[in-house]
Please model this.
Amino acid sequence: MKASIRWLTESEGGRQCPPPDGSRYITVARFEDEKEKYPQEAWSLVVENIESVDSGGLTIGDVRFLVDDAPDYLLHEGSVFELYEGRNMVAKGQILSSD
Model:
C-alpha cells in the first residue's frame, strides 16, 4: 500500500532525521480505526521505498505489516496511522492506495 507520511521534527518530539531515501524502516503503528486498542494491541509496520523527504517532512512510501497474521483490514485507502519509537510519536501517515 502507498502511504503519505509526515515525519515529525526533533523539536516536535520526532526523530533527529527521517529515514534515508530508499530505506526500510520498521516500527510500531497506532491506527486511528482502532486507537482504543493501543498500546495493548499494537502491530509493527514496515515502511519501504521511502522517497525524498520534502522540507515539511512529507514523503511517500510503501507500507505493510511485519507479520502475516496482522489485521490487513486496517490498511485501506484513507486509513490514518501514527508511527512510534517507544512512547514517542515520530510520524503521522495516511494510506493513499493499494498501488
About this structure: The domain at 2-97 is CATH 2.40.30.10 (Elongation Factor Tu (Ef-tu); domain 3). The radius of gyration is 12 Å. The chain has a mean pLDDT of 93. The chain is about 0% helix and 45% strand.
